[in-house]
Structure formats: structure tokens, C-alpha cells
UniProtKB/TrEMBL annotation:
Keyword Chloroplast: no
Protein name: Peptide deformylase
A biological process term (GO) from this entry: translation
InterPro entries: Peptide_deformylase, Peptide_deformylase_sf
A molecular function GO annotation: peptide deformylase activity
Protein family: Belongs to the polypeptide deformylase family.
Cofactor remark: Binds 1 Fe(2+) ion.
Highest taxon of source: Bacteria
Free-text function comment from the UniProt entry: Removes the formyl group from the N-terminal Met of newly synthesized proteins. Requires at least a dipeptide for an efficient rate of reaction. N-terminal L-methionine is a prerequisite for activity but the enzyme has broad specificity at other positions.
Naturally occurring in which organism (per UniProt): Actinomadura craniellae
Length: 181
């Protein structure tokens, strides 16, 4: 099991757009395993590479017994939206009403470079949008209206974990995927 520390709100890596994956190699497969193990251990519904400090366009998801990952995703979203509570492993213990498209079609690749199309509604669509936002340097509270975002920021500042330093990541010869930003 390769559980890694999850970066918390305030860490600059969460606001940095991730780079496309170019090499579908052993290092990418290890990253997908680390993301999956960490997401399941947390437990969470999804986890994006920047949340582990890796600036690559990769995320994992575990929704309604569907476990998977997507590399270099692009999204087609429905115009119909819904607002529901949303949380994030980088903002532990907090959830806020967030608008999202009801339906999403995500296109990308698996860790072997084979094309994937992932279609979903409601929770799966929300997860895919949330994780793709992470790859773009966007955090879900950015999707809220200004008044709700102000209330969310107050709750974040009052959270027990707020202001904790980012985990120290020591590079090892065995951990070479991507670049820790």
C-alpha cells in the first residue's frame, strides 16, 4: 500500500495548473496506484495528482463501486445544473453547496495510453468535474457564489488544520513520477 500525504488548502500546488501526461510508463502506473491507495485510505470519492504534490493531469475516482482513473481528461458538460454539498480531501471535514453540471462526459486515457470515455450523472459527474478542476488549479469553493464563498472561507480559516504546513516530501530514487511542485 502506497498511501501519501494529501496537500491541504493553501498549498500553492493546488492552484497550479497541471501538465499533460506525455509518458505512459511505469512511473505513471505507480502514480495511479499511489492516488488510488491514498484515496481509498482517506476515504474519498476522488483524488487528483496535484493533491499529492504531483503536477500531472491524472485523477482517480471511486463512485458507487466504480473504481478508476483518467489521464489528460477533457470534459463535455450538460447545461442542466444542480447544487449539492461537496467536500474535498484537501479541505478535510468541510462541505459546502456547490453548483455543478448534472451530466458529464469525460474523455482521456488510462495509464497505458488507451482511450477512455467516462459518462456519468449526479455524483459521478460531480466527482469528474471536481477532480478535473484540481488539474486546472481550481478548488470547488471557486464555483460558489461570492456570499457562500465568503462563508466557506470563514469556515476554512476556523478549521483545525488551516495553516498547517505542507508535508515535507523527500524525493527518493524510487519516486520519480512527475515533479513535486
Amino acid at each position: 500500500m502506497a498511501v501519501k500525504p494529501i496537500r491541504l488548502f493553501g498549498d500553492p500546488v493546488l492552484r497550479t495548473p497541471a501538465e499533460p501526461v506525455r509518458d505512459f510508463d511505469k512511473e505513471l502506473r505507480q502514480l495511479v496506484k499511489d492516488l488510488t491507495d491514498t484515496m481509498i485510505d482517506a476515504p474519498g470519492a476522488g483524488l487528483a495528482a496535484p493533491q499529492l504534490g504531483v503536477g500531472l493531469r491524472v485523477f482517480t475516482y471511486y463512485i458507487e463501486d466504480r473504481l478508476g482513473h483518467l489521464v489528460n481528461p477533457t470534459l463535455d458538460l450538460s447545461e442542466e445544473t444542480e447544487t449539492d454539498d461537496e467536500g474535498c480531501l484537501s479541505l478535510p471535514g468541510l462541505a459546502f453547496p456547490t453548483p455543478r453540471s448534472v451530466r458529464a462526459v469525460a474523455k482521456g486515457f488510462n495509464m497505458h495510453g488507451e482511450p477512455i470515455v467516462l459518462e456519468g450523472t449526479h455524483l459521478l459527474a460531480r466527482c469528474v468535474q471536481h477532480e478535473t478542476d484540481h488539474l486546472d488549479g481550481v478548488i470547488f469553493i471557486d464555483r460558489m457564489d461570492p456570499e457562500q464563498r465568503k462563508a466557506a472561507m470563514k469556515a476554512i480559516r476556523e478549521a483545525e488544520w488551516f495553516g498547517d504546513p505542507a508535508p515535507v516530501v523527500r524525493e527518493s530514487p524510487h519516486r520519480t513520477y512527475g515533479k513535486a511542485i
